[in-house]
Write a structure and sequence with these properties.
Protein name: Glycine--tRNA ligase beta subunit
Number of helices: 24
Subunit structure: Tetramer of two alpha and two beta subunits.
Family: Belongs to the class-II aminoacyl-tRNA synthetase family.
InterPro entries: DALR_anticod-bd, Gly-tRNA-synth_bsu, Gly-tRNA-synth_heterodimer
Pfam family, one: tRNA_synt_2f
């Protein structure tokens, strides 16, 4: 079957856009093909710095013939309705429609629309230019005198279509000054000449000969493998950085990996600073000594050319730039060390955190007060927590953080330790931003926990107070991340903390509930069990998590499943009878009217269970409360097997309904079982 090959050849596409652009191209073209009736077997998209490429295999030579019956107005309908029907159906006269009869609706018109299939190449001739013109680049550009917009100037288009074993046809169309053809180009420097291609297989081979590796994942693998081998030969280990690897693979079409070095004296600077400097300025990878684990004074660079001098000039150029950048970093570091962190605090008065929430200095004051309040609850020293909170943002005015904002907190720890602060204070300065995401480490040291919680709670309560809440997919202040950070700090450290002590806004507490639901569901918890244990005023995160785990264990066992079935039966009976009687059943049970052994046994079991459950919940023994409920399974089963709830005697009937209500209410002490599926 025929195959499509499309390549859009341009000036260099930003590395961060390439992978997404390739997927967007595949989706746009394949969606349009399917819409036109052209189903296909497979599709693949690729990107290099100078091209987006797409192959679609197993396409038919033409779209299928179609036949559609379109229902119209009733016979005798107004002319206006008939005219609209004719236009929509593409008919010139109502005589071209047929009449169908319906026993209920009478006679009505039906248009039979038959369309002959079109050659696939004609369909592609429409689809491909439309795809390019509407491509979702965030910020496209124009060039020259043309009106075409693309991420960078578009230089050539390769578009061929045809079956294997035959010479494919060129899909002819024009976009601005560019006319489609079957010609592409190789590596900008090593093989810049024109290359005539036919279909995808020979296209890939031709590019390879012209020093272009089409697949970005293969380029990544080449870089990683060659870098690891170079490092291993020197007794070193590559510090793998997936984000940098993706970026570097998007900067080269023919990756050539080399090793450079820098002066050992720079190793006196914190290694994170060295790594950030080399990464940001030269897109190079750092290395560690395999024996000691310490940072080595060497780095890995990736070139886009095979140099005649084996890369000596390229390496020397990178070493020269890195030496200059590391000199700057060393200067920033040494200068920052000369200024005590406390002396930076007045500078925070000139830094606005948010127009409605004041300056960073005002925010630090709030965090300090909040951290002091949280500290005793998490086992932290109050004075250490206050000191860490006071200094938590003191590294923001430093030269190093100004150069590398991603090092905030970390540099604060280095400066604090160098200036004699207590280790737990320094650790809290670094870790109070954590966790920044689901895979980030959670602080475990009490002082760090108190400041991290204070920082996030201040953000959340502050933005809720000014009504700046996340809406839909928009969350410009990362408030969802802050709430999940609070949840992880509490859960991972097993903290019993009442959020209502710090969160007075009911909407914000609901927001925490929503974030907790997401977190629990992501970890595999059943959504109905989460809903069953959360109420609008539940403010103990750890308790909710424990309840979900215990409830899950109960319902995984046979006793739990049977008890849930008994609960559902009792609840359904109560709902039906309360609706019929126009009243609720919640009166005390009259023991004298429990006439059968089964209802007597259930009454005794419920009374004992209520006492035991209440006592266990007061002692935060939720698992124990769950086990008490499990013991109700046998008397509940026996009751429903032997007792008629709707006894002819109204008093006995009412007493038995009150008994079921007591069962329901006792189980609700633990969770709202009405929300549990099953």
């Amino acid at each position: 079957m025929p195959e499509l090959l499309l390549e859009l050849f341009s000036e260099e596409i930003p590395a961060r856009l390439q992978r997404r652009a390739a997927e967007d191209l595949k989706k746009a073209v394949t969606d349009a093909l399917v819409e036109k009736g052209l189903v296909y077997e497979s599709a693949g998209a690729f990107a290099t710095p100078r091209r987006l490429a797409l192959t679609v295999t197993g396409l038919p030579a033409a779209s299928p013939d179609t036949r559609e019956e379109r229902k119209g107005p009733k016979v005798g309908a107004p002319q206006q309705a008939l005219d609209g029907f004719l236009r929509a159906a593409g008919l010139s006269s109502i005589d071209q429609a047929k009449v169908q009869s319906d026993e209920k609706k009478g006679d009505f018109y039906v248009a039979v629309i038959e369309k002959k299939g079109a050659p696939a190449i004609d369909i592609l001739r429409d689809i491909l230019p439309a795809t390019v013109k509407t491509f979702p680049w965030g910020k496209p550009m124009r060039w020259g005198a043309g009106r075409l917009e693309w991420v960078r100037p578009l230089r050539a288009i390769t578009a061929t279509f045809g079956p294997e074993g035959e010479e494919p046809d060129v899909i002819e169309f024009e976009l601005g000054a560019v006319t489609s053809g079957n010609t592409t180009y190789g590596h900008r420097f090593m093989a810049p000449g024109a290359i005539k291609v036919r279909r995808f297989d020979d296209y890939v081979q031709a590019l390879e000969k012209a020093r272009v590796v089409l697949d970005i994942d293969r380029r990544k693998q080449i870089i990683r493998t060659d870098a690891e081998q170079l490092a291993f030969a020197q007794g070193l280990e590559l510090i793998v950085d997936e984000g940098l690897l993706e970026e570097v693979a998007g900067l080269v079409e023919w990756p050539v990996v080399m090793m450079g070095s820098f002066d050992e004296t720079f190793l006196k600077v914190p290694e994170e600073v060295i790594i950030a400097t080399i990464r940001a300025n030269q897109k190079c990878f750092c290395l560690r000594d395999s024996a000691t684990g310490k940072l080595a004074n060497k780095f890995i660079l990736t070139s886009n050319i095979v140099a005649e001098d084996d890369g000596k000039t390229i390496v020397a150029g990178n070493e020269r730039v890195i030496r200059a950048r590391l000199s700057d970093a060393k200067f920033f570091y040494e200068t920052d060390l000369e200024t005590p962190l406390l002396d930076n605090l007045p500078k925070l008065e000139d830094v606005v955190f948010h127009a409605k929430l004041g300056t960073q200095a005002e925010r630090v004051s709030r965090i300090e007060k909040l951290a002091a309040e949280i500290a005793p609850l998490v086992g932290a020293d109050v004075e250490d927590a206050k000191r860490a909170a006071k200094l938590s943002k003191a590294d923001l005015p430093t030269g190093m953080v100004g150069e590398f904002p991603e090092l905030q907190g970390l540099m604060g720890r280095y400066y604090a330790l160098a200036q004699g602060e207590r280790p737990q204070v320094a650790t809290a300065i670094e870790e109070h931003y954590k966790p920044l995401g689901p895979s980030d480490r959670v602080p475990t040291e009490p002082v760090a926990i108190s400041v991290a919680l204070a920082d996030k709670l201040d953000i959340l309560t502050g933005f809720w107070a000014i009504d700046e809440k996340p809406t839909g997919s928009k969350d410009p202040y990362a408030l969802r991340r802050a709430a999940l950070g609070v949840i992880r700090l509490i859960v991972d450290n097993k903290l019993r903390l009442s959020l209502s002590r710090f969160v007075s806004d009911g909407d914000l507490l609901s927001f925490f509930h929503d974030r907790l639901k997401v977190s629990l569901r992501d970890s595999g918890a059943r959504h109905d069990l989460v809903d069953a244990v959360i109420s609008s005023d539940t403010d103990d995160i750890l308790q909710i998590v424990s309840r979900v785990a215990a409830l899950s264990s109960l319902l995984a066992a046979e006793d739990g499943k049977a008890l849930l079935a008994g609960y559902k039966r009792a609840a359904n009976i109560l709902t039906a009878e309360e609706k019929k009687d126009g009243r609720a059943y919640a009166d005390p049970i009259d023991a004298g009217r429990l006439s059968t052994p089964e209802e007597q046994s259930l009454g005794t079991a419920i009374a004992q269970a209520r006492t035991d459950v209440t006592a266990r919940l007061e002692n935060d023994d939720y698992a124990g409360a769950i086990s008490v409920l499990a013991s109700l399974r046998t008397p509940v089963d026996a009751f429903f097997e032997s007792v008629l709830v709707n006894d002819p005697d109204p008093a006995i009937r009412a007493n038995r309904l009150n008994l079921l209500a007591s069962l329901r209410d006792t189980m609700h002490l633990v969770a709202d079982f009405s929300k549990v599926a099953g």
